[in-house]
Specification:
This protein is of the alpha/beta class. It is built from 13 helices and 17 strands. The chain has helices spanning 2-7, 14-17, 43-46, 55-66, 79-93, 109-124, 141-145, 178-187, 215-227, 297-306, 314-336, 360-370, 395-425; strands spanning 22-26, 29-32, 37-40, 101-106, 129-132, 163-166, 198-201, 204-205, 211-212, 231-235, 259-262, 273-277, 343-347, 350-354, 373-374, 376-378, 384-387. It has a 7-stranded mixed β-sheet, sandwiched between helices. The chain has a 4-stranded mixed β-sheet with strand order 1-2-3-15. A 4-stranded antiparallel β-sheet has the order 13-14-17-16. The longest helix has 31 residues, at 395-425. The mean pLDDT is 95.
């Protein structure tokens, strides 16, 4: 690991949590240079929904490379781009009765968020954007301004202007409808809230701690935005692409956002980000918002292959089934260790196990890694163990990974009891 410590910037993060050198990966298993295997419950922060080195996706990319297919084409028309867009329209948009224009924004999710915010302000001729507590939308300047976590925000280098934060669903407790506050602020001319150009949110806050907005709350928010001529932007970068059980996380609520951002798993492991917008919002002048890598043709090939998983309901049903398995197993862990005051929440195949005791979730993640499981944390204080396996993981591996978490918690609690006993004897 010396070369990483010597040469790579201190900003490196995940290598600190998982301090080994990985050499290969297949499906939901990663292998380090010592040939030790690790079950992957991280899946590239939700990028690898179809697993590592998915055979069909890899074969499609290899065939494309062998054919000397165009790799870099800016926003020029290519066969790969044509086939991706046709597949996306036929398989995803058409069956869901969604009419969106597609804009390719650049390689990562934060590029899509920046574009969404810029477009909303341009179209509505208003600058204010409403974001929500615990939201995470990326770390470039505009996306960071609508991200809530103080770990990433500092007055010295972030522009916080023209963004208003409001409480997310459940933030003030289950008995308080936070949209009542939003409506009050919008209707009170002395509230200080400038009429927003747009509202941006995740329907499931992944990095924020796996917080779930109810369908009723989302429908009310969509109605409120319509009533006050505010654009609704859904950031579906981490919890879209099938993670919730439906391809889009907002489908269950029955809403149709004005703008949707997609990245991570849409590229099937390769960099790809795109914006979906109502056709009337597509008011760009040609070349007005560009980027050198806004057309990753190899990602188009990979994505088109991955989208075949959505030709039927089979994957969707599998995600919902395995999600129910995860919920049952995690609820059993909560019941087994009542002293933790733990809580479990999630949907589809994103679940969070909240451990309120400071530092405990970090201990669990570290112990899991020592025992062959890659699993990361979420929440403002890293208090949530976040379960994010590939959607294609088999049930046996899924249960084996959850078992590692269970045993890690048991081992940590046993060590604490032994320490307390020793201190008492002394």
């Amino acid at each position: 690991m010396r070369i990483f410590e010597k040469v790579e910037s201190r900003v490196r993060g995940y290598v600190r949590s998982f301090p080994v050198i990985f050499k290969s990966a297949k499906g939901s298993v990663m292998v380090d240079e010592m040939d030790r295997e690790y079950i992957d419950f991280f899946a590239g922060a939700g990028t690898l929904n179809y697993g590592h080195n998915n055979e069909a996706i890899s074969r499609a990319m290899i065939d494309y490379l062998k054919s000397d297919g165009v790799l870099h084409g800016l926003d020029m028309a290519t066969i790969a781009k044509q086939r991706f867009m046709q597949k996306f329209c036929d398989t995803i948009l058409g069956p869901r009765n969604l009419e969106y224009k597609i804009q390719f924004t650049g390689p990562t999710g934060t590029n899509a968020v920046e574009t969404a915010i810029k477009l909303a302000r341009m179209v509505k001729k208003r600058s204010n954007i409403v974001a929500f507590t615990n939201g995470y939308h990326g770390l470039t300047m505009g996306a960071l301004a609508v991200t809530g976590n103080n770990f990433y925000r500092d007055e010295a280098y972030i522009s916080r202007s023209n963004v208003s934060f409001l409480p997310y669903d459940g933030y003030l407790g289950p008995e308080f409808n936070t949209l009542d506050l939003f409506r009050k602020l919008l209707t009170d001319n002395s509230s200080g809230l400038d009429l927003p150009a747009a509202v941006i949110l995740e329907t499931i806050q992944a990095e924020g701690g796996v917080n779930i907005a109810s369908s009723a709350w989302l429908r009310e928010l969509a109605q409120l935005c319509h009533e006050f001529d505010i654009l609704l932007i859904v950031d579906d970068i981490q919890v879209g692409n099938g993670r919730s059980g439906d391809f889009f996380s907002f489908e269950e609520a029955g809403i149709k956002p004005d703008i949707v951002t997609l990245s991570k798993a849409i590229g099937a492991g390769l960099p790809l980000a795109l914006l979906l917008m109502r056709p009337d919002l597509d008011q760009w002048k040609p070349g007005e918002h560009t980027g050198t890598f806004r057309g990753n043709n190899l990602a188009f090939v990979a994505s088109r292959e991955a989208l075949q998983y959505w030709d039927t309901n089979e994957l969707s049903e599998a995600v919902k089934y395995k999600g129910a398995v995860m919920e049952k197993e995690l609820a059993a862990i909560v019941a087994r260790y009542p002293e933790l005051n733990a809580a479990v929440r999630g949907r589809g195949m994103i679940w969070g196990l909240e451990l309120p005791e400071r530092g405990l979730a970090s201990q669990v993640s570290e112990t899991c890694f020592e025992n062959g499981l890659v699993i990361e944390l979420a929440g403002a204080d890293d208090q949530v163990v976040k379960f994010l396996p590939a959607l294609t993981i088999d049930e046996e591996t899924l249960l084996k990974g959850i078992g590692i978490v269970d045993r890690a918690i048991a081992a940590i609690l046993a060590a604490k009891r032994e320490k307390l006993t020793a201190e008492y004897v002394l």
